[in-house]
Design brief:
Shape: globular
CATH topology of the largest domain: D-Maltodextrin-Binding Protein, domain 2
Distance between the termini: 37 Å
Number of helices: 16
CATH class of the largest domain: Alpha Beta
CATH architecture of the largest domain: 3-Layer(aba) Sandwich
Helix content: 40-55%
Radius of gyration: 19 Å
Structural class: alpha/beta
Number of domains: 2
Strand content: 15-25%
Number of strands: 11
């Protein structure tokens, strides 16, 4: 339940200190949709493909994309009408709902369906076994976030008690975790791409396992909007989701080289070959959702992961926070 009070406090402050234009605006039959993404990541490739390949434009939608850097900030932006749609982990909708929000965020489309982190070791390991983590110093992700919760879930899956079988470090800010490992902290670290691949290139670490391949299907990152926005702008979100679905099918059928070239403008500081490698890592393990439909079994798996981590404030019925009608209409 870490960060619950922060969501509400920040949204209250933001609502009274910033002026936002709520809802979508129309101009010559083009609807602008303001999207707040939790971070900029190759993990979200289908979203960038939908923009770069013109799929949103084909549906009469102009995307105003802002990176809000963090689940707390992203949710605050959505709640305070600073965005129409948020791209963020589904767990944040549960946190807000548990605070009895009057206008809760509703998940309506899936983007990623596995965890996006990889286990990186300081030394090369030819025949990795998860038991090698026992007794080690493991630099994990921040407490309360999906990477940390999934990381602990995977460790337990392999018979490792995160609290007693290793030295688990979780007090380093997300942005500083790579530099902490590079500076000598930890024998293992949980990292997102492209940092994991770049560490291999630079000889800092070695990818030995994927948390996404081990986690099972989960609504890891997806699109949500406030209930009131969905009710008033259902047609806009149907077209938004249709464009996303086009991109998902395009990603599924395209080569890693094609995908990398399509999304490269969003990652100017990352070499094309690194983007290709990262896309291949995510695509090969099924991280990119191939349909916007959010599955109930994935929602149940999310509850299990959060509960094991001690971060589940309450059990929330699938139909309470997931709108399936939009995705079903688009994909049928």
């Amino acid at each position: 339940m870490k960060g619950l009070r922060k969501y509400l406090l920040l949204s209250f402050i933001t609502a009274f200190t910033a002026l936002f234009i709520s809802g979508c605006s129309s101009n010559d039959d083009v609807d602008k949709v303001r999207v707040a993404e939790v971070t900029r990541s190759i993990f979200y490739a289908p979203q960038y493909v939908a923009i770069s390949e013109g799929f949103f434009e084909e549906e009469g939608i102009e995307i105003d994309l802002t990176t809000t850097w963090g689940g707390d900030t992203t949710m605050t932006t959505l709640l305070a009408n600073g965005a129409d749609v948020a791209l963020v982990g589904a767990e944040t909708s549960i946190y807000v709902y548990a605070q009895e929000a009057n206008d809760p965020p509703i998940n309506f489309a899936a983007l990623t369906q596995t965890d996006g982190t990889f286990l990186v070791s300081r030394e090369p390991i030819d025949n990795f076994d998860w038991n090698m983590l026992k007794g080690s110093t493991f630099l994990g992700q921040r407490t309360g976030g999906m990477p940390q919760m999934v990381g602990e879930h995977v460790l337990r899956k392999h018979g490792i008690d995160p609290r007693n079988d290793l030295n688990l470090i979780q007090n380093i800010d997300f942005g500083n975790i790579p530099s902490a490992f590079a500076s000598g902290t930890g024998e293992f670290v949980q990292l997102f791409e492209p940092t994991a691949t770049q560490f291999e290139i630079d000889g800092i670490g070695h990818i030995v396992a994927s948390f996404g391949a081990e986690s099972g299907t989960v609504p890891y990152t997806g699109f949500m909007a406030k209930k009131s926005y969905i009710e008033k702008n259902n047609d806009v979100l149907e077209r938004f989701t249709k464009a996303l679905y086009k991109a998902q099918k395009w990603v599924e059928s395209s080569s890693t080289e094609q995908i990398a070239k399509s999304i490269q403008p969003f990652f100017n500081d990352t070499p094309l070959d690194v983007i290709e490698n990262v896309v291949e890592n995510y695509k090969s393990q099924g991280s990119y959702a191939t349909t916007p439909r959010i599955k109930e079994e994935a929602w149940d798996n999310l509850h299990i992961i959060m509960d094991q981590a001690g971060e589940l404030p309450m059990t929330v019925d699938f139909n309470e926070l997931v709108n399936t009608e939009i995705a079903e209409k688009v994909t049928n």
